[in-house]
Amino acid sequence: MVDEELVRVLKKEHEKNLKEIIRQAVWNAEMVRKLGKKWFEIRDKWLEEAFKRDRELWRDPKIREALVKAILTKHPAHKL
Amino acid sequence: MSIAKAGDDAGSVIYISDNIAVDVSRRYITLSKKSLVTEDIVAIEFASALDEVGVSYTVVAGYVAILFGRSRRSDDIDFIVEQMDMDSFLDLCRVLRERGFDVMQGDICDPGSLRRLYERYLAEAYAVRFMYRDVVIPNIEFRFAKTLLHKYSIENSLVVILNNRYRIRIAPLELQIAYKLFMGSNKDVGDAVFLYTLFKPILQRNEIRGWCEQLGIDCSLLEEVAESG
């Protein structure tokens, strides 16, 4: 059956992705432990550069308004 | 004397790295780094406002991993806050407004709008979002503690002391890890593995297993990660 084959392929792909994410998370934790302060300098520089790029977009009021709408739509006030 | 040094004297400090130290008995984590990122600033400002009005809270989810060095961004910073009455909420909003926060689903300057938010969202167990100055992402997701897990997270929170100056409360790591596995997305599993690997020397593995059992999830993944490490 094609459907079964598709499910098998998707499951395999999902497992592969998950393995890669786990490997990356372990590596990330090891970097924090080994490099400590230095790691945070590298990571924080990357975070702030990404943030500044986003912030440039928000300076346009139309984009800003659309982004706020998108956030409220993407994350509806879900019941907890 | 820094908290970590004070803990040293008590002999209960475990160093995770050259800039992260955990005082296990006092439930403090000290973290020092060169500068703060926007995520830190938004979270610290919000936490300070909650401290100012004397409300108990805890930070949960993605920001906890980011705080400790996870290399990813987050759209929001999740705060779980003890139940407040309407007047206390209005007072908190006044402090938040003075500190540069705005509410995304209403008008923080309009008491009528805030009352409606309280009645329609918070009292009904929905979350409210706050934005800091011109920062749209990350924003604060604010919710009242409604479940036993929320209440446990607040009552057993850890204090993180950032750069020996700022304080922020986070949920117990064991519960965070189990809950992230329960959520189950690749991002959540990555955060769980990250926190587990980083804090392995101080984690109560039985506690993680207990939470996983309560949440009905298999935590063997963590054992595999521990064995491979």
Task: Give the arrangement of secondary structure elements.
The complex is a heterodimer of chains A (80) and B (229).
Chain A: H1 2-35, H2 37-58, H3 61-74
Chain B: H1 3-10, E1 13-17, E2 20-23, E3 28-31, H2 38-52, E4 57-60, H3 62-67, E5 76-81, H4 86-98, E6 101-103, H5 111-120, E7 128-132, E8 135-144, H6 148-155, E9 158-162, E10 166-170, H7 173-183, H8 186-198, H9 205-215, H10 220-228
Parallel strand pairs in B: 3-9, 5-8
Antiparallel strand pairs in B: 1-2, 2-3, 4-5, 6-7, 7-8, 9-10
Helix pairs in contact in B: 4-5, 7-8, 7-9
Describe this structure in words.
The complex is a heterodimer of chains A (80) and B (229). With 80 residues, chain A is mainly α. Chain A is 88% helix and 0% strand. Chain A contains 3 helices and no strands. Chain A has helices at 2-35, 37-58, 61-74. In chain A, α1 (2-35) crosses α2 (37-58). The N and C termini of chain A lie far apart (40 Å). The model of chain A has no long low-confidence stretch (mean pLDDT 87). In chain B, strands 1-2-3-9-10 form a 5-stranded mixed beta sheet. A 5-stranded mixed beta sheet of chain B has the order 4-5-8-7-6, with helices on both faces. Chain B is globular, with a radius of gyration of 18 Å. With 229 residues, chain B is of the alpha+beta class. Chain B folds into 2 domains: 33-171, Beta Polymerase, domain 2; 173-229, no CATH class.
